[in-house]
Amino acid sequence: MSESQKKGLAVGVTVIVGIILAYSLYANLGGERIPANTRQLKCSETNELFPLEMKPGLGHYPHVNPETGRRTLYPVEWCYNGECLAKGGTPVILNTQLGKEEPTYCPVCGHIVRFHNPGPARD
Ligand SMILES: [Zn+2]
Q: From the CA of 1, how far away is ligand 1's center (Å)?
């Protein structure tokens, strides 16, 4: 390979890497074509729900409640048993998120709620 061929190859690789980096930046920083990845988080103190856009740099749960400034926002599982389904689901913070070992029961209907809790039954 001649010196000029090597240079050409290096330039080519640099351009390709640049394109990949630019695209991944664009994809991560939210071009409008990419739907926002939003999750509902629930405050363990006020029981309010907060839609939060997932983005890099948020760190670990719990996230900061923008109204209280305290780290009390947790991800939720939705209970769709009986009366909860009729209301469109009940958001429940799992005990494991709160550092408790006991199983989590829905405060509305009393059913057990697990990680990846089943969605509404489809029939
Ligand atoms: Zn329930």
A: 69
